[in-house]
Amino acid sequence: MRTERFDTVVIGGGQAGLSAGAYLARTGRSFVILDGHERIGDNWRERYDSLRLFTPAHSVALPFDRYPRRGSHAPTRDEFADYLEGYVERSRLPVRTGVWVERLQREGETYVIDAGEARYESANVIVATGAHREARVPALSGRLDPSISQLHSTGYRNPSQIPDGPVLVVGAGNSGADISLELAHSHEVWLSGPERGHIPADIDGWIGREIGARIFIFLGRHVLTERTPIGRRVKRKELGQGDPLVRVKPKQLLAAGVHRVGKTVDVREGLPVVEEGSALEVATVIWCTGFRHDLSWIDLPIFQEDGQPRHERGVATDERGLYFVGLPFQFAAASDVLPGVGRDAAYVVKQLDRRAATLSIPAAA
């Protein structure tokens, strides 16, 4: 097994890991960024074709860089993926793709990262695998009739892959609403799940792009934080209930003919049953039921009863030299999205560098 040593290993090459890398590069410390995808940006390219960011171009740039298209254009999935790839080249970040981390453990004062035939050792580790890692599908999916086609939103690309016949989209969040509206042009669609509210502004209109977006970004970065009472209340609600609809509005779903129903709660004779009691005769079920932030590969005693790591603003409280970037509400409502991830990365790297300096760890290995 090949072993390499760095001062810091960053696990994850999405916007969180790349932001951390940009700040690490300015410390002079040796580091490497590991990413399991074969190409930077593939975590975006693997999502549905019509996906567009909620954040306008004027607010999506990563640290020390500019997004090539200025103004209020909302980047598409592929545009932003290409931007991430170009960012690595412009910033000359030491990224290694196709490296899937299987285990993180500690041997004495050294962190050990196992990734297939490779082994990495470091004094510091920044976990930046993002807010989403493993698709979540309810157990009742296994009881549906085999004739019903099933896929998670991670496997959905466009309407052409969906068989003829009615579709049940389970999960009424942003992905579920996007997919339901798109499919309504060619399929009969039921959208299952409680309404979590919506942002009334049209984020694609001039006011929404130029004024509304800036207001929401300011609130997400500076008002809804762990330092404010309202921020702490929002954190408890957000982590437990999900986000409101942003781009798609309930009236658009209604106008498109999408049927709104309650939660999918059971299976009867192979058909999905919603909480109103109806069994829906559908040909396809698309699970827009979110993700688990799977950190089971971290073999360290850092977890709370709910499975989340114990940390203070991304600095692990139980393991010296372990840090996180990109956790949901790591410090603020914007922590796991583009307007907030860079600030958290800057803070974490500052704490890392400060600790290393007190321990007299040299800046370069």
Please supply descriptive tags for the structure shown above.
8 helices; 2 domains; globular; five-stranded parallel β-sheet; single chain; seven-stranded mixed β-sheet; alpha/beta; 18 strands; 365 residues; FAD/NAD(P)-binding domain
Explain what you see:
The chain has 2 domains: 2-133 and 293-358, FAD/NAD(P)-binding domain; 136-199 and 244-287, FAD/NAD(P)-binding domain, CATH 3.50.50. The chain is 27% helix and 21% strand. It is built from 8 helices and 18 strands. Strands 1, 2, 3, 4, 5, 6 and 18 form a 7-stranded mixed beta sheet that branches. Strands 8-14-9-10-11 form a 5-stranded parallel beta sheet, covered by helices on one side. A two-stranded antiparallel sheet has the order 7-15. A hairpin with a 2-residue loop joins β12 (264-268) and β13 (271-274).
Poorly predicted spans = none
CATH class of the largest domain: Alpha Beta
The rough form would be described as globular
Order of helices and strands: EHEHHEEEEEEEHEHHHEEEEEEEEH
CATH third-level topology of the largest domain: FAD/NAD(P)-binding domain
Question: Whole-number average pLDDT?
Answer: 90
| CATH architecture type of the largest domain | 3-Layer(bba) Sandwich
What's the end-to-end separation, in Å? 21 Å
How does the major sheet shape up?
7 strands, mixed
What count of helical segments does DSSP give? 8
